[in-house]
Amino acid sequence: MNYINLFRSTLPETALEIAALLVLFVDLGFLRKAARATRIAVAAVLGIAGCLAALWAVSIAGPFSAGNDLLLSAGGSAGVAQVAVLALTALTLLLLIDSDFTRNPGEYVAVVLMAAAGGLLISAAQDLLVIFAGLELLSLSLYILTAFAKQSGKSAESAIKYYVFGAMSAAFLLFGFSYLYGLTGSTNLHEIALAAAVGRAASATPLLYIALVMVAVGLGFKVAAVPFHLWAPDTYEGAPAPAAAFIASVSKVASFALLVGIGTAFFHVFDNLHRGVLFVRFGFPTRYLGLLAPWELILTVLAVASMIFGNLAALAQSSVRRLLAYSAIAHAGYILLGLAFFSWTNVSAQAVLYYIVTHGLTTIGAFGVVGVVERAVGSDRLEAFLGLQKRNPLLAAVMLVLFLSLAGIPPLVGFWAKFNLFAAVLRTSGGALPFTLVALAVLFSAVSLYYYLQVLKRVYVMPATDESPITARPVTVAVLVLITAAVVVLGCFPALLQSWIASFYPHP
Amino acid sequence: MIQESAAFTPQFGASAIARILWLIPAVPILASGVIALMKQPQRKPAATLAIGSLSFSLLLSLIAFGHVLAGWAHSAVVRETVNFAWFHFGRTSVDLGWVLDPLAAIMLVMVSFVGLLIFIYSVGYMAHDENYTRFFCFLSLFAGAMLGVVISNSILLLFMCWEIVGLTSYLLIGFWYQKPSAAAAAKKAFITTRFGDVFFLLGIVWLFAQTGTLLFYNHGVGSLEGLALANLLTQHAGLGLSAACAIGLLIFAGAAGKSGQLPLHVWLPDAMEGPTPVSALIHAATMVAAGVYLIARVYPLMQIGAGPNGSTTALTVVAWVGAATAVFAALIAVAQDDIKRILAYSTISQLGYMMAGLALGGVAVGMFHLITHAFFKALLFLGAGSVIHGCHEEQDIRKMGCLRVDMPFTFITYAIGMLALCGFPIFFSGFWSKDGILEAAHSWNISQVPFYLLAFGALLTAFYMTRQVCYVFFGYWRGHETAHESPGVMILPMVILAFFAMALGLIGTPAWPWLHAFLDNHAAPFSFHGFAEPGLGWLMLASSLIVFLGLGLGWKFYGDKSPEPEEPDVLEKSTPKVWAALRNRLYVDEFYGATVIAFYAWWARVADWLDRRVWGGIVAAVAWLFGLWARFNRLLDVEWVDGSFDKTCDELSSGGGLLARVQSGRVQDYLRILAVAVIVLAAILLWSSRP
After folding, report:
1. Are residues B414 and B325 in the same domain?
2. I need a labelling partner for A155 at 20 to 30 A (CA). Which of A39, A149, B522, B614 fits?
3. Its pTM surpasses 0.80
């Protein structure tokens, strides 16, 4: 890959970084004396402009020759995830406009943009070093964002926990990467997978497996999969609402896109090995083919643990933010199931992308509502939502749609996301195991309805203790209505998003 | 599912009007949504919005009709479809779409035009109802869904609209839900039509499974086009039927439920509990005709594989059911006293004519009667509504009389509708459309019985309508308060409908069979040679004589006499037993009550008994056993285990339960768990990959 190509393929990241510097420059250079509302608005608008510029850069990124020395890929899952990362970042910046937790909006927006740049990198990364650099850029920014409410003790506490846990898992990840490099002699995902399948590394199985487990720690931490999820409830609870929305949506989208990229790379190996991919898939026992079988096993274990633990723990929560954290863990479990039974066609990748994009969108909306209620009532306990329907019917309606979508009720988009994902799992591999796991996932989706309805019951059914109206500010309302409308429309016309995602792939 | 691109792909061959055809149902449905959000006192905006949206639909329908007409006149393409994939299901795509062809175009115009007139009429009729807004909300939803049924090119879309139409029918029959009889009638209508819909749905699933497409027309690969039909014909469904025939019969079951054919007609007379405009729009002109329209829409399926006698098993069944219904309902209508119930049975009877017409003579014959009937029956219902309104909500014809003096406009328009329904020769549309059906029945070469049944039905029709008109408009006034004429907003739609009840006959006379030519897509030259077909003249003469006979008999029995309200009917005196049977609607309801409903009640009692005694007993026994086991355990616990257990418990509860222990909030613990997890994962992996 020559430097011109490298520059072209990192144009979106460059745009974000320039925007980050510009925000700092404008905010600290010209607006130090300005009112806080002005500073926040200017910073957010500049940040959104940066996202739009990066979106434009993504859209003009041409296809590259897909060699094995690739650092970054374009199109396919990378394209979808990059667009989603940028759009969701812009939405969380819009939520910032109406919030008041910080006196340093310039720094906040700059850090958000850097985190988004990290997200863009890992969405497209094909090389261990790029992955690690992107992950660290993302993670370090997120630690800062979590701690950004400087008056809040909770914010600082959760940030330090997040940081310690994150540093530890990053160490594991790097250790695993070093093993992989040592065993295969390459940092490129395709080369590694090739070497693990046929090269000398194939004989060093136990060591290879240890390396994979280490890598799984680092990535499991990013997607908050049980048992590497422990940071999530604290962070979701302590971080300022826009930051929490960012962590729950953008960072998740990018991290899952990375997992999709890894899965795709492992499968492309077979394309290089044999022309007839089907022959490989069915001619030999899959489990001995390089990294695929152990990787699938690890993901399956994480998926099952996340589904069970996430859903059961969510039942016992009394804080809506923690509830959302455990629900996100449960959703991560479903997605990991789709990644564990990955298909050599694009079916699984597209189903997972559909899921993460829509889930990210819905989560931002949910945190938006929680943020508004929290500011009016001063708490995110379940009781804070009592009688919301009387206090602000619009917010209540938004909450209804978003939570039902998270629970997977048709015709909302969450239903189609689950449906596609589970269908992809069943189509990819027959047999009792995937069927049992999907049955388990469906069962736990039913369980999840209980805790979503616990919240909605307080919103709609239970008598209110306080009936004074709650007002939301116009930008927030606009964002929430937009998200809700998208959830309904995409749910009624599921083919819209499907065909949009498919349009990133050169062939079906 | 995902990898196949699912973009919205309109056929760019389709004309502009075909591409925006979806607006015709969408606008009234949208209006209904908006009205639903309005408050009770916002009466005027609600009515304006409903009428405005339907006027828009009528306008678009007229443009669409003009477009098809122009295409037909130039012998160009007359069927345009716009299809798109709703979503994908594995390799199957679930397609929706709409179609613009002569059948849809003419039906669109009829539904939106008659609907609009009835909307306007409702402004006057419902003026004093406090739930005026809700009424227009439902009415608008109905109109939208009905128009959706008409333009559907996908059997799934059709079924969805069909179900919405059923729902609005339920809502509107039960509009005065405070009346127990209205609530019961709504339930009866919903459940009875649903019974037919079950078969319809089976037919849809079967059709989809056999042809792999939900679309009717799709450039040669739709389910009503050559390839799929040929395939359906070769599949055997048992009992000597082809799959095409069996699916056709299943679909007919759905149509029979909606169109009140024997034996599923029982809901339609009860549906008259709804407001009269609803009876006119839904239970006379449009919704009940949806079943007929459905059969016309899937006619290629019903017709495929016709034998040497020109009919298939499915069509033969339709013909017999239709003819039997026509006579059956007409018989009952003779002995009813409720002005709307008479019309309801008359509707059932006429729907039987339409079904028979479809089966015996083809799409055009059935559809002609559907269109003319929609106009004159809507007119009759609106007239009945006007009478009821004028007589202070009285519906018993024995308590009316001599209204021709008090309500002259209603009388004249009603008389026109009545003569059209009877098939009075030459000047009224009903004559031409009914004559077409009789002619088709006469030339059917399987059996002549349907012809005689239908002719007898025509005689009865003329008779019971004369009886009704004599009771209502002639004789002397037998009510209490004086009757009054209805306001202009109610009279105007009736006058317009009366005009069409006469004029519409022009589009289907033997001299100029325009409608037949339009629907079958060939030219329609005007010539009086159409009358010269052998036997036609005699047939027309005979049917005219039948009508005159019916009118004469009716006048003879009821014309000049003015029976007291309590006095038994003239016929009752001569044949009390037959009369009682007819009056009690030939005991069909009682029969269902004694069989189906009694069976369900019995089954429910059995299930209840099973629940209480058998399953409940088992559960109680298990519970008792567990209780015993628990007591034993408790003994064991208290004696043996408690000591050690208490100690463990204390330890656990100091951490606050298992979950809280995991999520202790201490980051050191988090890291410990992480380390343990790594070891466990590695152990699982290595253990599973052992040689």
Report:
1. yes
2. A39
3. no
Report the alpha-carbon distance of residue B35 to residue B23 in Å, rounded: 18
Asked whether residue B56 is domain-assigned, the answer is: no
Say yes or no: B483 and B620 in one domain. no
B290 shares its domain with B402: yes
Report which of residues B534 and B428 the model is more confident about.
Answer: B428
- Residue A503, chain B, CB below 8 Å: the answer is yes
Which of these three, B589, B617, B641, is where a domain ends? B589
Q: Are A358 and A413 in contact (CB under 8 A)?
A: yes
What are φ and ψ of residue A317, in 5° steps?
Answer: -80, 145
Q: How far is B260 from chain A (nearest CA, A)?
A: 33
One domain for residues B340 and B435: yes
Tokens standing for residue A88: 């969701």
Whether B302 is covered by a domain: the verdict is yes
**B674 in contact with chain A, both atoms CB, cutoff 8 A:** yes
Residues in A closer than 8 angstroms to B95, CB to CB, are none
Task: Say whether residue B88 is in contact with chain A using an 8 A CB cutoff.
Answer: yes
- Domain termination residue (choose one: B561, B589, B617): B589
**B335 and B445 assigned to the same domain:** yes
- Indicate the residue type of A332: A
Is the reported ipTM for this assembly greater than 0.90?
no
B579/B603 same-domain check: no
Residues B620 and B553 in one domain: no
Could you state, in order of their start, the residue ranges of all structural domains in chain A? 3-502
- Are the Cβ atoms of B6 and A172 closer than 8 angstroms? no
DSSP β-bridge partners for residue B152: B98
Instruction: Name residue, tokens 């998740």.
Output: A252
Please report whether residue B103 resides in a domain: no
- Chain B, nearest residue to A233 by Cα: B663
Determine the 3-state secondary structure of A432 from DSSP: helix
| Domains of chain B: total | 2
Q: How far away is chain A from the Cα of B687, in angstroms, using its nearest Cα?
A: 10
Q: Report chain B residues whose CB lies below 8 A from the CB of A495.
A: 6-8, 85-88
Instruction: Of B66, B67, B34, B68, give the one whose Cα is nearest residue B50.
Output: B34
- Mark which residues 203-242 of A lie under 8 Å from B by CB: 205-206, 209-210, 212-214, 216-217, 227-228, 230-231, 233-234
The tens-digit pLDDT sequence of chain A (508 residues) is 567 777 878 889 999 999 999 999 999 888 888 888 899 999 999 999 999 999 998 888 655 544 445 778 777 888 899 999 999 999 999 998 888 888 889 999 999 999 999 999 999 888 899 999 999 999 999 999 999 988 888 899 999 999 999 999 999 999 999 999 988 888 888 888 877 777 666 666 778 888 989 999 999 999 999 889 989 999 999 999 999 999 999 999 999 999 998 888 877 666 555 433 333 333 333 444 556 678 888 999 999 999 988 888 888 888 999 999 999 999 999 999 999 988 777 888 999 999 999 999 999 999 999 999 998 988 889 999 998 998 999 999 999 999 999 999 988 999 999 999 999 998 877 778 888 999 999 988 988 998 999 999 999 998 888 888 888 889 999 999 999 999 999 999 988 999 899 888 876 5
Task: Count contacts between A and B (CB, < 8 Å).
Answer: 109
Determine contact: B9 vs chain A, CB below 8 A: no
Of residues A15, A17, A10, A79, the one with CA closest to residue A52: A15
Q: Which residue of B has its CA nearest to A313?
A: B659
**Domain interval for residue B643:** 594-666
pLDDT band at B12 (very low <50, low <70, confident <90, very high): very low
C-alpha dist (Å) from residue B670 to A91, A215, B355:
32, 18, 75
First to last CA, chain A: 27
Q: What is the pLDDT of residue A283?
A: 33
Instruction: Select from B2, B670, B674 the Cβ nearest to the Cβ of A420.
Output: B2
Both structure tokens of B680: 């466990």
Residue whose token pair is 């997977």: A408
Q: In chain B, pLDDT over 70 holds for what percent of residues?
A: 91
Are B643 and B495 in the same domain?
no
Q: Which residue do the tokens 């509302």 mark?
A: A37
Q: Is B580 on the interface with A (CB under 8 A)?
A: no
Asked whether the beta carbons of A176 and A214 are under 8 A apart, the reply is yes
